[in-house]
Amino acid sequence: MAIQWFPGHMHKARKEIKKVMPKIDLIIEVLDARIPYSSENPLIAELRGEKPCIKLLNKSDLADAQITQLWIDHFQASRNIKALAVTQDQPAQIKQTLKMCRQFFPERNVAVKPIRVLIMGIPNVGKSSVINTLAGRFIAKVGDEPAITKRQQKIILDNGIELMDTPGFLWPKIHNVSSGYRLAITGAIKSTAMEYEDVAMFAADYFATAYPGYLLKRYKLDALPKNDIEILDAIAKKRGFLQAGG
Questions:
Q1: How many domains does the chain have?
Q2: Which residues are in the CP-type G domain (predicted)?
Q3: Of 182, 178, 229, nearest to 201 (Cα)?
Q4: What CATH number does residue 234 fall under?
Q5: Which of 105, 136, 165 is the last residue of a domain?
Q6: In this predicted model, what pLDDT tens digit does every residue of 201-230 receive, in sequence order?
Q7: Residue 222 burial (C-beta neighbours within 10 Å; 0-12, 13-18, 19+)
Q8: Considering 142, 165, 188, which residue would you say is the last residue of a domain?
Q9: What is the CATH number of the domain that holds 56?
Q10: Quick one: 159 and 223 in the same domain?
């Protein structure tokens, strides 16, 4: 099963990025730290080629810290890539990105030739919040719905860096079913792109396997039910979501 959710503005964004890429020095790709593999857009790797890249693992406060560190090590093992875990309530953390940008160009006189940075990411990874923090002011609209940013915008920062924002975009077909579910759970694709029940059952099965203790504690369950449907029933009962008749 391939998931298709590629609105017209995403197709337009891809064409515009390809056009502007020759003028760009460096890429910042914002990832969701909870799903680094699933939120890494293969089209971004294709478009950037060999240009330096900073992988920002955003929302790291919601992710498993040990797994996040493994991903940072994995990314930094590649040539021309740096990686950093960040969270929105630690702006100083996010601003380290600017220092990392300059480290790629130690000899550059940024007063004469600014570092041109393109910031990209799939929808709903928190890219707009990162931009606002880097700029030190409200620049980009922030929201929980995917695909808030609809057009490119150029932001001049105070430290010799020009930042270009782009709309969040996915790849046309998501063939990895597991990745599709993860993208749906974290809000990267519209809720209408998949069946609610399928997404919920995937989430229940995943957490029961990877983090059973979390499920028990979060939903105050006495014991972990045997399968995904029973887990969802138990959670619904605890939260008073079951209607009369089951």
A1: 2
A2: 14-172
A3: 229
A4: 1.10.1580.10
A5: 165
A6: 999 999 999 999 999 999 999 999 999 999
A7: exposed
A8: 165
A9: 3.40.50.300
A10: no
Decide: 113 and 158 in contact? Cβ < 8 Å.
Answer: no
Q: Contact 207/215 with Cβ under 8 angstroms?
A: yes
Residues 6+ apart with CB under 8 A from 177: 1, 3
Task: Give φ, ψ of 57 to 5 degrees.
Answer: -90, 90
Q: Which residues of the chain have pLDDT under 70?
A: 1-11, 140-152, 171-172, 191-193, 243-246
**104 burial level (CB within 10 Å; 0-12, 13-18, 19+):** middle
Evaluate whether residue 215 is within a structural domain. yes
Q: For residue 49, is it left (φ>0), alpha (ψ between -120 and 50) or beta?
A: left
What residue type is 64 in one-letter code?
A: D
User: Do the beta carbons of residue 166 and residue 118 sit within 8 Å?
Assistant: yes
Domain residue limits at 95? 8-165
> pTM for the full model?
0.86
Sequence-ordered list of residues with C-beta below 8 angstroms from that of 26, at least 6 positions apart, any chain = 51, 52, 53, 54, 101, 104, 105, 115, 116, 117, 118
Amino acid making up residue 134? L
